[in-house]
């Protein structure tokens, strides 16, 4: 019997998908205009949408770190599935480039290299990153299981200091910080997702705390915004490298807010829950094919002599790509082999 989906995590998953698609379409679109309103909206969206992948890792932490599975179950059920996805979708992309858009000749050696190196399509880097997490999942579970409450708080404090505060401090001091936390950022997101989902109580999501988190979200976007545009105001280029500076903080705020909202919407209509669950189940599949859908959007715009070159067209294209992808994946999941993978 399948476990019932956690609705607020499915909402976060869907939100993360929109973030990722917009990030692929309009990440630096704010550089194409001097219109203050368009720069403001598009840059704010770029800053917010950088949390898409972090949210996926946080969801994984919330769902996986507390489960009881043997090493064999993890590797047979989870690791093998991602390996199969990597092989299948890398091969599909390779054949697409060889025989559809004809940007490379066919070579079995190059196909194997593409599978091993992951250089076939940039968005697929996430598959390899997720695979690396799954390989360590049993160990991460042991760490979580053996951490008492104080140990968890200490771990989170270290993450906050080294991944949220020190990067900002470096901007002021203008000197590289020599001490680092030997902990991968992706694993930190897993721990943060687990903590917010399982260790915070309902009382921790008071209206006051939620309001502070919302204010923190706007403050984080504003700080990032200022760091990006300040060099441009002074006559230089936009500091686009500053866009993801506060992504971990913003991801935590959004995850916290949506988790808190789940306590206030406890009587959701069953049909709406089913719709959210159905859409959420298609998110991974849409991620796998969204590059093809974006190519279709570029082609459609080109047919009309238009370009996806401003915030309006980027937002519209993002919505259309997601709405196109969901029914495609929904029907693909009817195929037994595909259903198992996506």
Structure description:
The protein is mostly helical. The protein has helices at residues 7-26, 36-49, 52-64, 71-99, 108-117, 125-146, 149-173, 185-199, 207-233, 247-264, 270-280, 283-303, 311-332, 336-341. The mean pLDDT is 91. The protein has one domain (7-341). It is built from 14 helices and no strands.
Which helices and strands appear, and what pairs or packs with what?
Blueprint: H1 7-26, H2 36-49, H3 52-64, H4 71-99, H5 108-117, H6 125-146, H7 149-173, H8 185-199, H9 207-233, H10 247-264, H11 270-280, H12 283-303, H13 311-332, H14 336-341
Helix pairs in contact: 1-2, 1-3, 1-10, 1-11, 1-12, 1-13, 2-9, 3-8, 3-10, 4-6, 7-8, 8-10, 9-10, 12-13
Describe the structure concisely.
The protein is an all-alpha fold and 342 residues long. Helices cover 74% and strands 0% of the residues. The two termini are 19 Å apart.
- The shape is globular
Helicity level:
over 70%
The Cα radius of gyration reads 21 Å
- DSSP E strands, number: 0
- Structural class category: mainly alpha
> What letter string, H or E per element, gives the SSE order?
HHHHHHHHHHHHHH
> For the terminal residues, how far apart are their CA atoms?
19 Å
The fraction of residues in strands falls at under 5%
Mean pLDDT: 91
Number of domains: 1
Tally of individual helices: 14
Unreliable spans are none
Q: Give the biggest beta sheet.
A: none
């Amino acid at each position: 019997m399948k476990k019932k989906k956690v609705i607020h995590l499915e909402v976060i998953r869907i939100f993360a998908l929109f973030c990722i698609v917009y990030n692929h379409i309009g990440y630096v679109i704010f550089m194409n205009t001097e219109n203050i309103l368009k720069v403001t909206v598009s840059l704010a969206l770029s800053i917010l949408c950088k949390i898409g992948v972090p949210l996926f890792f946080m969801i994984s932490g919330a769902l996986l770190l507390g489960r009881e599975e043997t090493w064999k179950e993890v590797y047979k059920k989870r690791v093998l599935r991602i390996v199969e996805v990597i092989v299948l979708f890398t091969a599909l992309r390779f054949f697409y480039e060889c025989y559809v858009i004809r940007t490379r000749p066919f070579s079995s050696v190059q196909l194997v290299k593409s599978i091993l190196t992951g250089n076939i399509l940039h968005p697929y880097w996430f598959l390899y990153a997720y695979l690396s997490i799954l390989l360590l999942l049993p160990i991460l579970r042991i760490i979580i299981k053996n951490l008492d409450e104080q140990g968890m708080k200490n771990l989170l404090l270290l993450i906050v200091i080294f991944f949220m505060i020190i990067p900002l401090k470096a901007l002021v001091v203008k000197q590289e910080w020599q001490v680092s936390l030997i902990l991968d950022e992706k694993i930190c997101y897993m721990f943060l997702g687990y903590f917010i989902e399982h260790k915070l109580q309902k009382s921790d999501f008071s209206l006051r705390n939620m309001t502070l988190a919302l204010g923190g979200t706007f403050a984080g976007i504003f700080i990032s915004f200022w760091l990006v545009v300040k060099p441009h105001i002074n006559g230089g280029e936009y500091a686009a490298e500053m866009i993801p500076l506060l992504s971990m903080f913003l991801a935590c705020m959004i995850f916290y807010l949506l988790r808190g909202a789940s306590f206030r919407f406890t009587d959701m209509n069953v049909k709406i829950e089913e719709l959210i669950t159905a859409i959420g189940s298609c998110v991974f599949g849409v991620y796998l094919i969204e590059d093809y859908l974006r190519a279709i959007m570029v082609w459609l715009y080109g047919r009309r002599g238009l370009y996806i070159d401003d915030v309006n067209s980027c937002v519209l294209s993002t919505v259309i790509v997601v709405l196109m992808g969901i029914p495609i994946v929904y029907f693909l999941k009817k195929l037994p082999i595909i259903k198992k993978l996506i």
